[in-house]
Design a protein that fits this description.
Helices cover 36% and strands 19% of the residues. The protein contains 11 helices and 12 strands. The strands form 2 sheets. The protein has a 9-stranded mixed sheet. It has a 3-stranded mixed sheet with strand order 3-2-4, with no helix packed on it. A hairpin with a 2-residue loop joins strand 2 (130-133) and strand 3 (136-138). Helix 4 crosses helix 8 (177-185). The radius of gyration is 19 Å and the shape is globular. Bound molecules: S-adenosylmethionine.
Length: 311
């Protein structure tokens, strides 16, 4: 696919109806020869719309008006390129805990949580957040994670977590203002509620930072799993990670995770982590599949805002 087609496709598939500002930008970039030439000189892995738009936001550039975006990006290209080369798309969405919680709550307690592809580790605090599944509320404090759930008996207790650890190629630190600014810049412009959620979840994590280890989810998982305390159920989990992992390494990861004791929770795009016998997906929007030990249980929306339970 050409870069222009990638941007146009991203506009149609991911942005329409979700971020009008980024949809406008992606369509304009797809038609902008000057920007396409600059993007084309970047390494292939650094050409994604999300990365470019996030960097321009990080640098204080405009993202509402495509012409202003063009002028800013071209005039500041050395700074944009420098940031694009050192940054990666590492959106950390605490809201995804709302779809993990129903599974976590039914496992033997207490839990030792190990998240692969943890980013800053905000999904390692499912026991600290509050939840709303329709009228059903659970937990107290902030952030409150809302999830429109169908077919689900919502959990009636929070999990008891005695150990939390994350593994990431590039762990981010919520106590570092530059890392926090990057996580903020990755949130799409209109999503003010997600920006608030990031701040609230970052405060929770900063109060008791998780163990975050720099490493690869295949090569370094067994050693980190071996550090989990005895007497707790080890739960290895991941959400929206495997699309960043090349297919042969995904298979290697599944082999490694299946060889470990405890349980494995995946929340991934079904094109990336395949399951047999899935029911029809809900008609609106793209969905991930929530699975426990390889058994699919629910369709989930990307930021944890909705789920349809079928398990
Ligand atoms: C899109 S973020 C998702 C973060 C978090 N799971 C969430 O749902 O909020 C994907 C994360 O996976 C990490 N990642 C990608 N490939 C990895 C690998 N091979 N080993 C460990 N982490 C990886 C990236 O660095 C990034 O932080």
């Amino acid at each position: 696919m050409t870069i222009a087609a990638t941007y146009a496709d991203f506009a149609a598939r991911e942005l329409r109806g979700v971020s009008p500002a980024y949809e406008r930008l992606a369509l304009a970039v797809a038609d902008d020869d000057e920007l396409l030439a600059l993007i084309g000189a970047l390494p292939p892995a650094k050409r994604q719309p999300n990365l470019l738009f996030g960097v321009v936001r990080l640098l204080g550039g405009p993202v509402e008006d495509p012409a202003a975006f063009h002028d800013f990006a071209v005039a500041n290209w050395p700074a944009v390129e420098a940031q694009v080369r050192v940054r990666a798309t590492q959106t950390n969405e605490a809201g995804r805990c709302a779809v993990l919680l129903p599974v976590l709550a039914r496992l033997p307690q207490p839990l030792a949580l190990l998240e692969v592809g943890a980013s800053a580790g905000l999904c390692l605090y499912p026991d600290r957040y509050a939840y709303r599944y329709g009228d059903h509320r659970l937990g107290a404090g902030a952030p409150v994670l809302e999830c429109a759930a169908e077919g689900l008996t919502p959990p009636d207790r929070l999990p008891e977590v005695v150990w939390r650890a994350g593994l990431d190629l590039n762990p981010l630190d919520v106590t570092d203002s530059a890392d926090l600014a990057w996580l903020d810049a990755l949130i799409w412009p209109e999503h003010a509620h997600r920006r608030e959620r990031l701040r609230a979840a970052a405060a929770v994590a900063a109060a008791e930072p998780p163990l975050l280890v720099r490493g690869d989810l295949v090569d370094d998982l067994p050693a980190l799993a071996a550090r989990a305390p005895a007497g707790a159920t080890l739960v290895v989990f991941h959400t929206s990670v495997l699309y960043q992992v090349p297919p042969p390494r995904r298979e290697a990861f599944v082999d490694v995770v299946r060889s470990l004791p405890g349980h494995w929770i995946a929340n991934e795009d079904p094109d990336v982590l395949r399951h047999d016998g899935l029911p029809q997906p809900p008609s609106v929007g793209g969905h991930n599949v929530l699975a426990l030990d390889g058994t699919p249980l629910a369709w989930t929306r990307g930021h944890g805002q909705a789920m349809v339970w079928f398990g």
